[in-house]
Amino acid sequence: MEIVKKTVLFLLLSTVIIITGCKRKETQPTQSGFKLNIPQGFPMPKIPEENFPTAEKVKLGRKLFYDPQLSQAKTISCASCHITEHGMADTVRFSIGDKGQIGKRNAPSLSNVVYQTELFWDGANPSLEKQILAVMLNHDEFDIEITEVENRIRADESYQQLFKDAFNGVINITTITQAIASFERTLLSGNSKYDKYLRGQATFTESEMNGMKLFFDEKGECFHCHSGFNFTDFKYHNTGLDSVTTDEGRYRTTGIEEDKGKFKTPTLRNIALTAPYMHDGRFKTLEEVIEHYNKGGKNHPYKDGDIFPLNLTPQQKQDIINFLKTLTDEEFINNPDFKKPNY
Question: Which end of the chain, N or C, is more open, meaning fewer C-beta atoms within 10 Å of its C-beta?
Fold first, then answer.
């Protein structure tokens, strides 16, 4: 009886999304006429009033996103660790800094980053603008002084008109980070096979359907943390990756003992493209990730109560993986507006 109730509830929720999910909605246009395209069924994101995207800011930010001048040795850019065809994530466990430095955490996806109110795996940063600044200052990443960034961009003639259009010619670290953040807020993904299925525009295989049922059912337990339109609860969890804390995670930000080993739930959108997985990229494949949860993780005093052995069959594990692959958004990874510009 309980299974029947859950199935009915799932179908009702799906129907609501199908009804409301046929088109994209747009924010109100800014003074420049720019509209932020929001997938239907997604909520309106909260954007700082002092930096609402404009067409001019986005155009400028896109160029800066791909510009290695922002790193000290001029060898890497934002796009080096956030690769479009990989769901705006990296392909290595730890990203390489501008002078060969090795990072300490896996670069997360920027899919739908506009909805993130706390950045980094431990939520230490409150805004995209400050997150970008932190990357520039981090010795393992861009490792550059702010004045050097400003001087380089001011000396680059290709930026003069772009900054004039976007910020009345003002070139400083504030306008630089605001422009990049504006571009990143356009990285919206909501047209995967899963989304099309909900709109009645695609058909699932039997395995994908079974995987979806498992995902949203107590048997799979996935939905407890990977919930909502973006497949994340935007919260922090200790998933039993280690029995002894190796990375303090959220504790670094809060100082609360129970937050040791907790990390932010990542979005699962485009998850099949964003390997390796977890905050430290320890798992190379989705199969490894599913097996970790199937075994219930390792014992840790602060492990989340929803992490326990699932006893899934080999077919059930494959079904969940096949469902996760339906979250790949081909339109997103091939969007020409997200590629490196030629201006």
Answer: N
DSSP assignment letter at 264: E
Q: Which residue in the block uniquely carries the two structure tokens 């929001």?
A: 38
- Matching CATH topology for 32-188 and 190-331? yes
**Residue in the block written with tokens 């590629």:** 339
| Preceding peptide of 45 cis, ω within 30° | no
Residue type, 90: D
For strands 37-39 and 236-237, give the pairing. Answer: unpaired
| Strands in 46-135 per DSSP E | none
Give the model's pLDDT for residue 72.
Answer: 98
Distance CA 307, CA 322 (A): 21
Distances (CA, A) of 55 to 64, 111, 178: 14, 20, 13
CATH topology assigned to domain 190-331: Cytochrome Bc1 Complex; Chain D, domain 2 (1.10.760)
End-to-end CA distance of the chain: 61
Sign of the torsion formed by the C-alpha atoms of 319, 323, 326 and 327 = negative
Domain boundaries, the chain: 32-188, 190-331
Ranges of H-type helices in the chain = 2-20, 55-65, 78-81, 128-137, 146-155, 160-167, 173-184, 193-198, 206-215, 251-254, 286-295, 314-325, 330-333
The CATH code that applies to domain 32-188 is: 1.10.760.10
pLDDT per residue over 189-231, tens digit each?
999 999 999 999 999 999 999 999 999 999 999 999 999 999 9
Phi, psi of 246 (to 5 degrees): -105, -25
**Residue 151: other Cβ atoms inside 10 A:** 12
